[in-house]
Amino acid sequence: MLNKKQYFVREHVGMFKLSNAYDILDPDTQQQLGIAKEEISGGLHFLRFFVNKQLLPTTVNVYEGTESNPSKMIFSIKKGFAFFSSKVDVIGRNGQTLGWFKSKVFSLGGAFRVFDDMGTEIALVKGDWKGWNFKFLFGDEQIGSVSKKWSGVGKELFTTADNYMISLEGEVNEAHATLLLAAGLSIDIVYKER
């Protein structure tokens, strides 16, 4: 799954959902490559009735295929409690830290600083003024993008579901694909969910 240059991420529709799920599709064939599911405790589900979801911790597990089978888990995204700035860890299937994101407190459209597993800042995910299109930058070089896709007035007005196109540019490697796919999901978790 992590050898693709493009991913279409489709959030499951829900009027009053307390946890999220996303289909990860190949945009050319519409074949489902994977699924990402937010998996949190019952206590956190209860808190979401009273507290903004963006402030609470969450875990999103990404699985290859169409089911959330633990043996097919590729990586996890974990966000702790957040007040001004969010930290999102990207954890591999064997429990090793692959990298992490730190949201910038003051940014127009949203931004993440990207760190590798050693804590070295290696990139920036930067949003436009609308917060719908994000660039994945290594220095001044753009190696990928995350863009929101319009899904129609009915869905946009009456649900919280969002769709994103994630694209890699240049040579694709598993580390870049993992971090960019995690960034696309993290954008929704940190900036878009209420």
Taking the alpha carbons of the first and last residues, their distance comes to 30 Å
Secondary-structure element order, N to C: EEEHEEEEEEEEHEH
Principal-axes shape call: globular
Uncertain runs = 152-159
Count the DSSP helices: 3
Q: Please indicate the count of domains.
A: 1
Question: Which percent band covers the strand fraction?
Answer: 35-45%
The amount of helix comes to 10-25%
In angstroms, what is the radius of gyration? 16 Å
Largest β-sheet summary: 12 strands, antiparallel, barrel
How would you describe this protein?
With 194 residues, the protein is of the alpha+beta class. The protein has one domain (6-192): Tubby Protein, Chain A (Alpha-Beta Barrel), CATH 3.20.90. The protein has 3 helices and 12 strands, in the order E-E-E-H-E-E-E-E-E-E-E-E-H-E-H. The chain has a 12-stranded antiparallel barrel. A hairpin with a 4-residue loop joins strand 8 (111-116) and strand 9 (121-127). The longest helix has 19 residues, at 174-192. The two termini are 30 Å apart.
Short description:
One of its GO terms (cellular component) is plasma membrane. This protein is of the alpha+beta class and 194 residues long. It has 3 helices and 12 strands; from the N terminus they run E-E-E-H-E-E-E-E-E-E-E-E-H-E-H.
Keywords:
41% strand, twelve-stranded antiparallel barrel, Tubby Protein, Chain A, 194 residues, 12 strands, 3 helices, alpha+beta, globular
Draw up the topology in text.
Blueprint: E1 6-11, E2 21-25, E3 32-38, H1 42-47, E4 58-64, E5 73-79, E6 87-92, E7 97-103, E8 111-116, E9 121-127, E10 133-138, E11 141-149, H2 153-158, E12 163-168, H3 174-192
Antiparallel strand pairs: 1-2, 1-12, 2-3, 3-4, 4-5, 5-6, 6-7, 7-8, 8-9, 9-10, 10-11, 11-12
